[in-house]
Amino acid sequence: MLSLSHQEAWAQFLDFVKKRTTPTAFGNWLEPIVVVENDGEAIILEIPNIFVKEYLLSNFMRELKSFLPVGAEGEPNIQFNVAVPKKKEMAAPQLKSPSADVKIEVSPYELKLNNHYRFDTFIEGPANQFVKSAAMGVAARPGQSYNPLFIHGGVGLGKTHILHSIGHYIRENHKKLRVHCITTEAFINELVDSLRNKTIDKMKRFYRSEVDILLVDDIQFLQNRMNFEEELTNTFETLINQQKQIVITSDKPPAHLKLSERMSARLECGLVAHIGVPELETRVAILQHKAEQKGIQIPHKVAFYIAEHIYNNVRQLEGAINRLSAHSRLLNLNITEELVEKTLKEMLKDAPKRKVSVEEILKSVATIFQVKVSDLRGSSRTKDVALPRQVAMYLAKLLIDGSLMVIGESFGKTHSTILHACKTIEKKLQEDEQLRRQVGMIRRNIET
Ligand code: ADP
Ligand code: MG
User: Fold this and answer.
1) Which atom of ligand 1 is nearest to the CA of 249?
2) CA distances (Å), 367 to each of 215, 370, 373, 394, 445, in order?
3) Ligand 2: distance of its center to the CA of 182 in Å?
4) Which pLDDT does position 92 carry in this prediction?
5) CA 118 to ligand 2 centroid distance, Å
6) What per-residue confidence (pLDDT) applies to 353?
7) How far is ligand 1, taken at its centre, from the CA of residue 157, in Å?
8) Cβ atoms 440, 280 nearer than 8 A
9) CB 160 within 8 Å of CB 249
10) Averaged in consecutive runs of 10 residues, what is the pLDDT profile of the chain (448 residues)?
11) What pLDDT does 178 receive?
12) Which ligand is nearest to the CA of 184?
């Protein structure tokens, strides 16, 4: 009887979440889950791979708790069993390993993998953990989990780093598999040249039978290049049909790319994973890791200061470390907050600030601190309101281009009140872990 109610509970859960997910996400993630009949308290879910568990728990915790049995701790009582793939799927992709006497064709357009871009040098945090584990899963069992793996996110957030990490891992652990990494620009150039030189058949042959793993960087460059799109779509289809792994990066999700329906559908049919802006703690960890690699020491306080000011691009964090290390070496100075401020002045000035409005900041702050926007704008000095109000002022100064005077006006306060709020919050952020998290959440809300 219990097993019947498990089935029912699951059906109700599916019914509820179906209306709250896209059909693609529902089809990819939820539909393949099977409820295993059992008499125990826990509901047993058979999932195609471990990512499905992460997906469920990170997206539907509340719904799972409402619809499924819960354990003593109030957690959903679910046992996840990863389905064992059928024999045929388990087998490594059919490889035609090139025999010694056959010359391996190497495309001149192939991109060399950056030797520093490896999984173990990729610092993870909540914003990129999912992408990293999906990438590691695909690298461990190429062609057998999600195909293609589509990674999207803003500039300088580590998409190429992850793509090359997959390449390195496969080259080191699946030695027979032929990894081909290419930028979309290079693919287009190669195609243009092959058409001109009448070697298109050779190119097609290469992509369709000499490659086991295709890593394609920056597919957004394929937009508005109609003539080339078809060739790449055909290549993808051929490779996927042979269970050969494809990994693609892009600055936008598939649905936002201006590509043909056929290509978009192809891109969406595997796993679409977003890489987000790393939160403050992760940025501090990245900075310290990069500094260590360069053989320089930066005090935690200084790393924190830099990470506070450069927030939406890891590449800029690296640039900061490079400048700092050059300055400190050349001038034989310790890396202090003053030195950082001096050296990074230009960089911080140039760091792109998003066009964020005070209204947006107030709304996000109000949501996280559970106060009303009108209270934030008001003048009540109770602690419940005063702290969030100072946070809003601090974020306005950080995220909005404009003088303190102008920002002050939009809060109905003087510029010295804003300055005071900023100093107070900066100080608190160094000591107060919870506040750091709250500010991190607000910024994520605003910046994504
Ligand atoms: P994208 O391709 O998304 O524009 P990249 O992969 O080129 O970004 O990353 C930019 C730089 O930032 C690279 O040097 C990369 O090593 C570094 N980087 C990005 N994210 C991380 C991370 N989580 N840990 C360590 N380095 C990172
Ligand atoms: Mg890149």
Assistant:
1) 2
2) 40, 5, 9, 16, 10
3) 11
4) 40
5) 14
6) 53
7) 5
8) yes
9) yes
10) 71 89 79 86 86 81 87 87 61 39 52 91 94 96 94 95 97 95 91 89 92 96 87 94 96 93 92 93 94 87 87 87 84 82 71 72 91 89 92 90 78 89 91 87 77
11) 95
12) 2
Q: Is the pTM of this model over 0.85?
A: no
Q: What span, in angstroms and rounded, lies between the C-alpha atoms of 115 and 165?
A: 9
Q: Look-up: residue for tokens 């996110």?
A: 153
401, two tokens: 């281009």
What are the tokens at 150? 């589509």
Cβ(265) to ligand 1 under 6 A? no
At residue 74's C-alpha, the angle toward residues 71 and 76, to 5°, is 60
Which residue among 290, 315, 321, 322 has the greatest number of ligand 1 atoms within 8 angstroms of its CB, and so is best to mutate? Answer: 315
Rounded-to-integer distance, Cα 119 and Cα 116, Å: 9
Q: Is 78 helix (H, G, I), strand (E, B) or coil?
A: strand
Distance 2 CA to ligand 2 centre (A): 51
The answer to whether the CB of 397 falls within 8 A of the CB of 408 is: no
Q: Are 81 and 47 a contacting pair, CB within 8 Å?
A: yes
Here the tokens at position 107 are: 């495309």
The closest ligand to the CA of 154 turns out to be: 1
CA 447/CA 442 separation, integer angstroms: 9
